[in-house]
Amino acid sequence: MHVSLTDHDASSLNPEKGLGVASLSVVYGCLIMSSLFLPPIIIKKIGCKWTIVASMCCYVTYSIGNFKPNWYSLIITSAILGIGGGPLWASKCTYLTISGIKYAHQTGKEKMDVVNQYFGIFFLIYQSSGIWGNLISSLVLNQNQNKVHYPKHADHMEIRAVRMEVFLKLTLSGER
């Protein structure tokens, strides 16, 4: 599972009595359990595409829960995210494999070559999302007339937390 902001900044953005760490613990605990039991059941019932859609809705609930973080909202939405994570990753893998095999059959190419290429393209996009996300947030934050000054001793986690705070304030206030 990869939720870049969540993985790196949850404990910094939600330090209130360990809320960030607790929410991440719930996410990963539920993810482990859902990965063990849910994917075959859900994929068999609704198929890969709809499993991806339903699982992404779980991710959206976690994003919404972070708009006003508190113990109640984050722990519940963390559990929902974790439950949706296992089926999402399993259905993504199944979907890429089935699509690759179908394409290989249509084109006469080697199945494993096409499947590997599909996974390579997926992970190229997936892993580069951190770069694109940081680039976009940097461009958005640099448009503001008010400069953000970081303390000289600030580490990268504190800087990302300040950037996220400024981004959320600008987004929610509607300032440009």
UniProtKB/TrEMBL annotation:
GO cellular component: membrane
InterPro entries in UniProt: Ion_channel_UNC-93, MFS_trans_sf, UNC-93_regulatory
Transmembrane stretches, start-end: 20-39, 71-90
Pfam families the record matches: UNC-93
Signal peptide: none
Subcellular location: Membrane
Alphabetically ordered keywords of this record: Membrane, Transmembrane, Transmembrane helix
The organism's place on the tree of life at top rank: Eukaryota
Membrane topology: Multi-pass membrane protein
Family statement drawn from the similarity comment of this UniProt entry: Belongs to the unc-93 family.
Protein name: Protein unc-93 homolog A
Organism: Engystomops pustulosus
